[in-house]
Amino acid sequence: MKDFTDTRSESEWDSVSYGDNEISIVPQVELTVPKTDDPTSPTVTFRMWVLGISACVLLSFLNQFFWYRTNPLSISSVSAQIAVVPIGHLMARVLPTRRFFEGTRWSFTMNPGPFSTKEHVLITVFANSGSGSVYASHILSAVKLYYKRRLDFLPALLVMITTQVNIDFVFIVIEFLGLGLCVLRIFFLVLCCKVLGFGWAGLYRKHLVDPGEMWWPSNLVQVSLFRALHEKENKSKWGISRNQFFVITLITSFSYYLLPGYLFTVLTTVSWLCWISPKSILVNQLGSGSAGLGIGSFGLDWSTIASYLGSPLASPFFASANIAVGFFLVMYVITPLCYYLDFYNAKTFPIYSGKLFVASGKEYNVTSIIDANFRLDRKAYAETGPVHMSTFFAVTYGLGFATLSASIVHVLLFNGKDLWTQTKGAFRKNKKMDIHTKIMKRNYKEVPLWWFLSIFAVNLAVIVFICIYYKTQIQLPWWGAFLACLIAIFFTPLVGVIMATTNQAPGLNIITEYIIGYAYPERPVANICFKTYGYISMSQSLTFLSDLKLGTYMKIPPRTMFMAQVVGTLVAVIVYAITAWWLMAEIPNLCDTSLLPPGSQWTCPSDRVFFDASVIWGLVGPRRMFGDLGEYSNINWFFVGGAIAPALVYLATRLFPNKKWISNIHIPVLVGATAIMPPASAVNFTSWLVMAFVFGHFVFKYRREWWQRYNYVLSGGMDAGTGFMSVLLFLTLQRSEIAIDWWGNSGEGCAVAKCPTAKGVVVHGCPVF
Questions:
Q1: Rounded to an integer, what distance in angstroms lies between the CA atom of residue 67 and that of residue 286?
Q2: Comparing C-alpha atoms, which of 390, 351, 296, 333 is closest to residue 683?
Q3: What is the mean pLDDT of residues 166-172?
Q4: Is residue 593 over pLDDT 60?
Q5: What's the chain's Rg over C-alpha atoms?
Q6: In a 3-state reduction of DSSP, which class is residue 517?
Q7: Angle of helix 478-502 versus helix 509-519 axis, rounded to 10
Q8: Is 60 exceeded by the pLDDT of residue 171?
């Protein structure tokens, strides 16, 4: 067994097991992550570059492809993680082994030997860069599809590609060509914000990566799969290896998705209550999984289950329990109470909706209140009247306020001492570290902090230059960029602790919108940019920190990991933009629910909410919505409630130390459980919670060995099979509008769930009371 005081050189460390008697503080990590390392294993290879870039491009395309769909399944890097294995082994057999440029510092070989786990991990890091979405797609949709403004793609792509070369020259050339720059610069700013996240990641590595308590649950899916795909194993007592189990899951998931994805789409949302009385508004409101409370509603479709909350198989049980309680309180207590007591004229609007309305209950015509300068036309706004929301939408904004204050108080009370101790000890030697961190510190050089800070400083300088030089197009003043960055720096450790322990991350989108909406109102582009700086840079930093933790688990040299993250980010942004533009040209009436055929999957729920938020916070402004000029001012009390709740839980843990379940009450997760509603709907939660409880509690508790062996493999197989079949269906059938018209493809059957119930309100397709 290797002692960490051993002074042997790295060349003597072949494949050594460290600290087998040292147990990780988190049981799931102890069961999943190996305590071994081989520093001589090939890492940066020709195979890694080819497969890594290919995986990044493929996943960026797939995730942007799904982003506009009703259930925007986020395909994780697990799919690419599996697919590259046979290709990697094939390349190891057929590529030439001779060394190029031998005798020089550039010497390399295309085939250094067997396909290694570390190559595989770096390929997966590239894939992680494409495993999600980017705010640029939201901005594209808002400007081009909702605000109906012109947007040319070619100069936007050129700006993104050449920003690292000579930004000023590119802008001068594009201006000379007479192309619109407002939205083009937004593209560039989004790219900068993605890279800005590296700065935060560098600052908080000591707090959010090194400690064993910061275990980043979603990474265990990938660790489990790496072991399944590379370790030799015999068949288990169930008669099947993990590799075989994955292949069976992938094939089954791939084949099954033909039903909910094309042949029998009602399986995506089974709202059986509506079948009892399809014309009753009350029954529809109670039973609809997509437009109501979703009582008894469920989805037999993995994209429905995993689209918004991620894989239920990767969620710790205590986090799932908090989400369940939060969802139940919001959906089955607060929402019905507010609606049927007619708070904020709730009955004039649908019980569940993310759209904006006029006082009469009809949908708001936003374009009618915008002037020629892309600002609020106050006269037109006074004539049209104030913007109204469904009560559910207003409450979710309030819960967003509460989540923000709850996150701050919770982390300060429950993790403040640890954070302070880690801060004081960040520069000390001989710090107490997790076993996996010890291995990394012993074997590899850290990434210098100045690498992270240099990237941050350069990008911040460029952004400030853009804000000053192109102020009329961007609308955001230079001080806005600094303020947004300060917000992100402050909240990253708070939100990071929650993400690293629960797999759930409350966002900063609301607070950033709120601040700039008051400071610089009636400018929707400024609001979007500020939110991107403050929210997305923090979100990106959490992604980078998660990758760093994966590198710790899999013993990847930190500097190599840094390189893969930077390159992967740049590639992903370009592919996201190309895919979004292609879909906008390829799909008629994309995102326009009034013109799309019934049952269409291209409804863009996330983009709709983003557009509505830009109207609420940017165009109209928080003062006219939540301030002294608005009717929703009482929503601000949620800030106070969110701050008090964690303090009460903390007090309870001190008064009743023997009641261990009290410490599992996680107010930010509980209150923020429905932060993604809308666009998420009730069926996404009900289906997710069933799976989360089955695998996170019952299987983990009573079938621990099965869970350890197959749980994360099952999650990856479901992701991969569903994703591949979805794209195949679109390219072969849906793209050509080849559809099957029958009852099973006619929707959930809750047509009147969106109808108001107030007397005298007239809405097309709804009865009048």
A1: 28
A2: 296
A3: 32
A4: yes
A5: 26
A6: helix
A7: 160
A8: no
Distance CA 560, CA 126 (A): 12
Question: What pLDDT score was predicted for residue 29?
Answer: 82
Among the listed residues 278, 277, 281, 274, the one whose alpha carbon sits nearest the alpha carbon of residue 768: 281
| Closest CA relative to residue 381, chosen from 623, 599, 561 | 623
Q: What is the DSSP string of 521-533?
A: -S-HHHHHHHHII
Q: What per-residue confidence (pLDDT) applies to 253?
A: 92
Q: Count Cα atoms within 13 angstroms, Cβ side, for 79.
A: 29
CA atoms within 13 A on the CB side of 769: 11
Structure tokens at 422: 């880690």
Q: In Å, how far are 237, 245, 250, 629, 655 from 240, measured between CA atoms?
A: 8, 6, 15, 65, 49
> Which of the pair, 11 or 597, is modelled with greater confidence?
597
**Is the separation of the CB atoms in 300 and 264 below 8 Å?**
no
Residue 520, classed as helix, strand or coil, is coil
Q: How far apart are CA 735 and CA 585, in angstroms?
A: 12
Q: Of 152, 186, 188, 183, which is closest to residue 170 (Cα–Cα)?
A: 188
CA angle 463, 466, 469 (to 5 degrees): 150
- The domain spans of the chain are 269-298+740-769
Nearest to 43 by CA among 448, 561, 549: 561
Question: d(Cα 739, Cα 729) in Å, to the nearest integer?
Answer: 11
Whether the CB-CB separation of 403 and 671 falls below 8 Å is answered with yes
Distance CA 708, CA 730 (A): 35
Q: What is the rounded distance in angstroms from the CA atom of residue 71 to the CA atom of residue 299? A: 11
Query: Letter for the amino acid at 29?
Result: V
Residue 447 DSSP class: P
Q: Are the beta carbons of 81 and 127 closer than 8 angstroms? A: yes
How high does pLDDT run on average in the chain?
78
Residues 197 and 452 sit within 8 Å (Cβ to Cβ): no
Q: Which residue, among 300, 205, 226, has the nearest Cα to 77 in the 3D structure? A: 226
CB neighbours (10 Å) of residue 76?
27
pLDDT digits (tens, 9 = 90+) for 630-648: 888 888 898 899 899 889 9
Whether the CB-CB separation of 668 and 414 falls below 8 Å is answered with no
For residue 657, cis peptide bond before it (omega within 30 degrees of 0): no
Beta strands in 408-531 (DSSP E): none
Nearest residue to 70 via CA among 750, 753, 764, 747: 747
User: What is the distance, to the nearest Å, from the Cα of residue 435 to the centroid of all Cα atoms in its chain?
Assistant: 29
DSSP string, 146-202: IS-----HHHHHHHHHHTTT-HHHHHHHHHHHT---HHHHHHHHHHHHHHHHHHHHH
Q: Tokens at residue 748, please?
A: 């959930």
Q: Which position has the token pair 């400030």?
A: 464
3-state secondary structure of 36: strand
CA triple 419-493-656, angle to 5 deg: 55
| Backbone φ, ψ for residue 37 (5° rounding) | -155, 145
User: How is residue 725 written in tokens?
Assistant: 């079949």
Q: What is the pLDDT of residue 229?
A: 78
Q: pLDDT tens digits for 453-502?
A: 777 777 777 777 777 776 766 777 888 888 888 888 887 877 787 778 76
User: What angle is formed at CA 195 by the lines to CA 191 and CA 198, rounded to 5 degrees?
Assistant: 165
What tens digit of pLDDT does each residue of 141-155 get?
A: 777 777 776 655 543
Q: CB–CB of 33/436 below 8 Å?
A: yes
Closest CA relative to residue 52, chosen from 571, 723, 543: 571
pLDDT exceeds cutoff 90 at 418 = no
Nearest to 285 by CA among 225, 362, 233, 350: 350
Helix or strand run (H / E) with residue 120: helix 117-129
Q: Which of 424, 303, 350, 331 is nearest to 719 (CA)?
A: 303
Asked if residues 650 and 408 have their Cβ atoms less than 8 Å apart, the reply is no
E strands, 297-432, are 356-357, 388-389
**Entry field: residues in the chain:** 769
